[in-house]
Automatic annotation (TrEMBL):
Record InterPro entries: GAF, GAF-like_dom_sf, PAS, PAS-like_dom_sf
Source species: Sulfuriferula multivorans
Protein name in the entry: PAS domain S-box protein
SMART domains: PAS (SM00091)
Domain PAS: residue ranges: 21-69
Signal peptide: none
Length: 254
């Protein structure tokens, strides 16, 4: 009776190393703080998705698995998804630095999306890494906004020093608000002491026709005096209207 062959030590060591490597990769896949999708490089079918991406987008593992990339919620019906896959098959790499996506709940997020093609045991696989950059983009936008407002303020200070008349000053301030402050339109009004209406005396920007028949008052007894402008003047304070289209006080001007 023959004895079974003794495993070659090198073969055993290689198997252990392979299992250890696979275990390490699986731990990284499961605990990564970026979303990871694994796709079949020939069919674009999703073969695996990590927990972070499931939590981020709100779709279950089953809703991802076996679907083509463009059949899943946030990527569904996007021509870009098919174009991206075609580019991946050609070049083996794609990158989107600012990809807008919608979660299952309808929330909008901004994502950095990077895909690479590689071979695993003779099979071509696509790995897509998705990083949520929503907070970073919001911070960048806030910084840009502050920079714009400071630039506009600087221009207004210069106008105060250099303008020779009130009319010129008012126009330059409106211009600075639009050209440096990022406003669509800016206007300045003065109060008519008899009618208590705020009469536009200077404006600049795209929508100055809006002022043609505008009715703004400082009289608290009329709806036209209870909007942002009338309230700010009457109460001698700033009034920030974050959503003009939905703010109830803005109804008379919609």
């Amino acid at each position: 009776m023959e004895s079974p062959p003794t495993p070659h030590p090198y073969s055993t060591d290689a198997s252990k190393a392979l299992r250890a490597s696979e275990s390490r990769y699986r731990r990284l896949f499961e605990t990564a703080q970026d979303g990871i999708l694994l796709l079949n490089a020939d069919t674009a079918q999703i073969e695996d998705v990590n927990p972070y991406l499931i939590d981020l987008l709100g779709y279950s593992h089953a809703e991802f698995l076996g679907k083509k990339l463009w059949e899943v919620g946030p990527f569904a019906d996007r021509a870009e998804s098919k174009e991206m896959f075609a580019e991946l098959q050609t070049t083996g790499y794609v990158r989107y630095e600012d990809l807008p996506l919608k979660t299952k709940t309808g929330a909008q997020i901004e994502a950095e999306f990077v895909c690479n093609t590689y071979e695993s045991e003779g099979i071509k696989v696509i790995q897509c890494n998705l990083r949520d950059i929503t907070e970073r983009k919001a911070t960048e936008a806030k910084s840009r906004r502050h920079a714009q407002l400071y630039a506009a303020l600087g221009q207004c200070n210069q106008a105060i020093v250099h303008c020779a008349s009130e009319d010129e000053l008012f126009l330059q301030i409106c211009r600075a608000a639009v050209q440096f402050g990022g406003m669509k339109m800016a206007w300045i009004g003065l109060i008519d002491s008899e009618t208590l209406r705020v009469q536009p005396v200077a404006s600049f920007g795209d929508a100055t026709e809006y002022l043609k028949d505008i009715n703004v008052s400082v009289d608290a007894d009329t709806p036209f005096g209870c909007g942002p402008t009338g309230t700010a003047i009457r109460e001698d304070r700033l009034y920030w209207c974050q959503d003009f289209l939905d703010d109830p006080v803005a109804v008379p001007w919609r």
